[in-house]
Amino acid sequence: MSHPLRVAVIGAGPAGVYASDILTKSETPVEIDLFDRMPAPYGLVRYGVAPDHPRIKGIVSALQKVMDKPEIRFFGNVEYGVDCKLADLRQHYDTVVFSTGAADDRELDIPGIDLPHSHGASEFISFYDGHPEAPRDWNLDASGVAVLGAGNVALDIARVLAKQADDLLSTEIPDNVYRALRDSSVTDVHLFARRGPAQTKFTPLELRELDHQSEMELIVHPEGFELDEASEEAIRTNNQVKSVVKTLQDWALRDPKGDTRRRLHFHFLRRPVEVLGTDRVEGLRTEIMELDGNGSVNGTGEFETVEVQSVYRAVGYLSSALPDVPFDNRSGTIPHDGGRVLDMDGEHIPGVYTTGWIKRGPVGLIGHTKGDALETVNNMLADVTEGAGHDGEAVPRMLSERGVAYTTWQGWNLLDEHERALGEQRGRERMKVVERDEMVRVSRDGDS
Q: Which residues of 396-408 are buried (b: 16+ CB within 10 A; e: fewer)?
C-alpha cells in the first residue's frame, strides 16, 4: 500500500505557498504542513509591502486559494529551531523544504551608520505594516531625510515618508502608523543612488506612481544624471530601463511647482561615505561618482554634504542562518543544487530542500518565485514520490505537548475576517474626521 508524501514547508510566504501549490498539482499524492514563525501567513506580502500597494497585496487572494486546499495545513506561531528542530521534522515528514526568505537588512559599513535615527529598511517597513514585533511608535521629527538605495524598497520608503497621511486612509494602514505620518515633520526626502539612472532597479510602474501623490514635488537633480555607453545600450535593449530613464528625464526637465508641502529629491552618482552627527544624525556625506562606460562607477575624490536628521538604508535584504542547516554567510543563502540542500562536502542531504530568497538570494519580484519553486519541486519528486506512512497527527500532538500555542488556517481566517471588519469601520471613522476637519478649515478661511 502506498502512502502520500508528507512534506514540511518552513516559511509560509509566497515561496513556500508556491512550492506547496506545485506539489498539490503533481501526480504524487501529498500532505503538506506549512509552518511560519508569525501567527499569520504570507510573509513579506503581509509584512513587507507598503499599505498603498493594493495591487501587490492582491497577490494574497491567489495565495489564499492555495492555502484553502485540503492537502495543506497551516501551523503559525511555530519557530523553527525553537519549537521544532530538523530532527523532529525528519522524524515526521518524508521531505522538508526551507523557504524562510530574507527579512534582515544588509549592513552598510560606513562611519556613523549606527547613530540614533539611522534605520534599516525592514525596521521602518515592519512599523508601517503593523508587524507584531515592530515598535508601536516611530519618531518622525526630522525635516530632512536620506534614503539610501536604488530599488523599489527605497522608493516605497521615500514615498511613504513624503506622502500625505490622509491619502492612506483608504488603505489597511494601522491607526498608530496613520497618526505618526500625519504628525510627521518631514519636508524633504533625498534618495541617493550610487550609480546612474540607467542602473537603478526601479520598476516603471512603481516609479511613475510617485507622480500621483498629492502635495509632493519630484525633483531630479541634474548633477549626476549621466548616461554612458553602457547606459545607452541598456536603454536600447531593455524597455524597462528605457521607461525608467524617460520618466526621470521628464521630471528633470519640468518647472518646479514650488508650492508643495513635501519634496522628493533624486540624487544619482552619489555614494554614501559617512553619516554625520554626534548624538543623532545631522547630515550625510557622499562621494561624487562617475560612470566608467561599462555600467559601473569610479570615485572622483570629490564630496558633498546634505543636512538630514534621519537616514534609512535600503541596500538589500539578507537571510538568516537556520539551526542544523548549512548556510553560506557570504551569499546569505543555503548551499544547494537545484534546490537540493548540500552539506559541507557538496553532497545532497537526503530529504532536505530549499526555495525562495534563502535559496537564490533576495533578488527578483514575487512572481519570479514560481519558477524557483518549480525547480525545487521537480528535483524533489525526482528523488522521492512515495511516503513512508508517517502519522499526520503526530506533529500537532508534539507541539501541544511542548506548550506551543500554534495558530491554524481556520483560526487565521476568523481573525482575518474580524480585522477586515474593523478596518472598514476605522476607515469610515477616519474619513468622517477628515471631512469634519476640512469643513472647519474652509469655514475658518471663509471668516478670515
A: eeebeeeebebbe
CA dihedral for 417, 423, 424, 429, sign (positive or negative): positive
How far apart (Å, rounded) are the C-alpha atoms in residues 130 and 361? 25
403: Cβ–Cβ under 8 A, 6 or more apart, which residues?
none
Nearest Cα neighbor of 111 from 285, 322, 319 is 285
C-alpha to C-alpha distances, 129 to 91, 172, 406, 412, nearest whole angstrom: 36, 8, 22, 18
Distance CA 228, CA 226 (A): 7
Q: What pLDDT digit, counting tens, does each position of 59-93 carry?
A: 888 889 999 999 999 999 999 999 999 999 999 99
Instruction: State residue 352 phi and psi, 5-degree precision.
Output: -120, 130
Q: What is the rounded distance in angstroms from the CA atom of residue 440 to the CA atom of residue 442?
A: 6
Give the pLDDT score at 99.
Answer: 96
Q: How far apart are CA 156 and CA 242, in angstroms?
A: 21
Single-letter residue type at 441:
R
DSSP-derived secondary structure letter, 197: G
pLDDT of residue 57 exceeding 70: no
User: Are β-strands 281-291 and 297-306 bridged in parallel, bridged antiparallel, or unpaired?
Assistant: antiparallel
Pairing of strands 340-342, 348-354: antiparallel
Tell me which of 308 and 45 has the higher pLDDT.
308
What is the number of alpha carbons within 13 Å of residue 161 lying toward its C-beta? Answer: 32
Between CA 80 and CA 241 the distance in angstroms is 40
**pLDDT tens-digit map of 353-412:** 999 999 998 876 666 788 899 999 999 999 998 899 999 999 999 999 999 999 999 888
Dmax over CA atoms of the chain, in Å, equals 87
